[in-house]
Amino acid sequence: MTIFERSKPGRKGYELPAYDVPDSGCNVPEHLLRKDPPMLPEVSEVDVVRHYTNLALKNYSVDRGFYPLGSCTMKYNPKINEDMAMLFTQLHPFQPRETIEGAVQLMGHLKELLCEITGTDDMTLQPAAGAHGELTGLLIARAYFEDIGELEKRKKVIVPDSAHGTNPASAAMAGFEVIEIKSGPDGCVDLEELKKHLDDTVAVIMLTNPNTLGLFEKDILTIAKMAHDVGALLYYDGANLNAIMGRTRPGDMGFDIVHLNLHKTFSTPHGMGGPGSGPIGVKARLAPYLPVPVVRKSGEKYELDYNLPKSIGMVRTFYGNFLVLVKAYTYILTMGGKGLKHVSDMAVLNANYLRVKLSKTFKIAYDRICMHEFVIDNEEFAKKTGVKTLDIAKRLLDYGLHAPTIYFPLIVHEAMMIEPTETESKQTLDTFVEAMERIAKEAQENPQLVKGAPYTTPVRRLDDVSATKYPVFRFKR
């Protein structure tokens, strides 16, 4: 039942004092005035509270259970992060500069910490999320090549076929031609294939390391040299930084531009389009093109530097999603250097534990030591049982577990990408393995049971195609 269906004429949950302000007339043009009153539900306070509380209980979240979404790093978010963010909720971006000293110092110190973690020289905190960061990084690359007089010839961006879907989209939005290269049989970049496309017409190579298959690009130093030898830049998609944080740094691998997902790696709740934060770190020669303002140290304090003549300009209003920055800052200070390294150690350990356990029942696409995630290949399983990856994902809901990422990356048919993160216990991982093994047995003995799932959710299996093509955005009486 929607909140509108709970509405009863005359019912309300508020009482306002008598209107005692003199009517000075209306300066709003007639054609902009509402002709009819807004369609708002008439409900009591208890109706509202119960309605939205019940809706929240029907939703699944990382606070309620295991959320093994591959490539998303859906780790548990410590509540101290929220407490610290609350300290800044009364700030307003239009406040005078002298009244936000603490916020500026926080951003400045956070930037230094992130530069140290990534091995970059300077950074902007403005981008609102990962894809926004990608676009920002590519606009910086574009400005750099324009400044040195090479933009006319450098029209191409190379991305591997295992890249995140936003990589080619961001490159296209920045005005580049996208060149996709095939992965080698080991799931990593095929150096011979890369050589075929790498010349002085290439502006950027976009990589994730470890890649989307959860595999570390062992030839990354060679790839970096190949890129730099032809004058191209190397871009790091930071979606998978959780696997290497504290162990190695993208800047040390040869990456020139590095984007981060603070809402993934650094423990800020995310999903459904926000909130997020996608800072971009760069090597020194690219720093002049960063968005303004950049937080930089001046003496013992940090200041907002707007004096960047070659800047690409602002990419986000004010200073970015500031409260997300506060949460990431809290997380980093709470963990410390040793703690961040331990995060990566446990993320990799948990992923390999699941990989080995599930390999007894399912086919692992690249069955060797992985990093933070791995991919199951269900193509043969689907042919034998008629049960597809989507069916397994739906059936997991009946076991009280959120499904992993499915059908991605596209180079693995019937893919199921699993990332347990570091915050899950062995007990939770074993529960997931047991559920997967039971579903595999069900698929062999009673495939229709799995194909009809889920059975225990508030809403049964949806028509995903119709929901995508014919979405309903508002309630109609």
Automatic annotation (TrEMBL):
Documented EC number(s): 1.4.4.2
A single GO cellular-component term on record: cytosol
GO molecular function, one term: pyridoxal phosphate binding
UniProt key word Oxidoreductase: yes
Cofactor dependence: pyridoxal 5'-phosphate
Stretches assigned to the Aminotransferase class V domain: 140-273
DNA repair in keyword set: no
Known catalytic reactions: N(6)-[(R)-lipoyl]-L-lysyl-[glycine-cleavage complex H protein] + glycine + H(+) = N(6)-[(R)-S(8)-aminomethyldihydrolipoyl]-L-lysyl-[glycine-cleavage complex H protein] + CO2
EC class name: oxidoreductase
HAMAP family noted in UniProt: GcvPB
Its job: The glycine cleavage system catalyzes the degradation of glycine. The P protein binds the alpha-amino group of glycine through its pyridoxal phosphate cofactor; CO(2) is released and the remaining methylamine moiety is then transferred to the lipoamide cofactor of the H protein.
Subunit structure comment from the entry: The glycine cleavage system is composed of four proteins: P, T, L and H. In this organism, the P 'protein' is a heterodimer of two subunits.
Assigned protein family: Belongs to the GcvP family. C-terminal subunit subfamily.
Name of the protein in its database record: Probable glycine dehydrogenase (decarboxylating) subunit 2
Native organism: Fervidobacterium thailandense
